Inverse folding.
């Protein structure tokens, strides 16, 4: 079966960068949007998808204008919901609780927030519906890590080992699932900060 290019682009720098911004709809900076457009300009993507949160959606809209590729919105590509911690700076969260979360985000989800496996499940559903055409998805660091778990079989510790800066572009080569009950697989082709 033939493969296709999948580009995962983390949204540009948002207002309030450095906080735990999950479901909070932080606005992107103009510089952040421009950096995303620069990353996407020469990719030759045929499909363009973005998370519905403004920091990803507005970058997707700017990429649509710059490339002529029509944008689709998919909320399954949202960031992890940090619950009671959403919008807080890490220093404002109790240190031991935050350490437990980073060590085991499934067993120690933020209070009222989303566990790691729920994020992986929704990203997996979105990945399973991708068409086998060069695709660019403007999304979030957590969703990109979940895609690595789904497509490359990374465990949670391995996903944290990948640095995904604002406007960072992760390039993957994806082989679609070959049958019922199978999942697509991928190989990392590049990471462009």
């Amino acid at each position: 079966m033939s493969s296709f290019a999948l580009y995962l682009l983390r949204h540009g720098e948002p207002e309030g960068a450095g906080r735990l911004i999950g479901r909070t709809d932080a606005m992107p900076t103009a510089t952040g949007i421009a950096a995303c457009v620069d990353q996407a300009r020469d990719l030759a993507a045929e499909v363009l998808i973005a998370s519905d949160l403004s920091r990803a959606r507005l970058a997707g809209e700017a990429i649509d204008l710059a490339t002529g590729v029509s944008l689709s919105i998919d909320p399954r590509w949202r960031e992890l919901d940090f619950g009671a911690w959403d919008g807080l700076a890490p220093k404002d969260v109790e240190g031991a609780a935050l350490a437990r979360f980073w060590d085991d985000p499934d067993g120690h989800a933020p209070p009222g927030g989303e566990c790691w496996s729920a994020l992986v499940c929704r990203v997996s559903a979105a990945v399973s519906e991708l068409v086998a055409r060069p695709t660019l998805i403007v999304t979030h660091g957590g969703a990109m890590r979940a895609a690595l778990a789904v497509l490359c079989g990374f465990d949670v510790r391995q996903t944290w080992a990948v640095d995904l800066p604002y406007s960072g572009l992760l390039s993957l080569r994806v082989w679609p699932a070959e049958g019922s009950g199978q999942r697509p697989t991928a190989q990392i082709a590049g990471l462009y900060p």
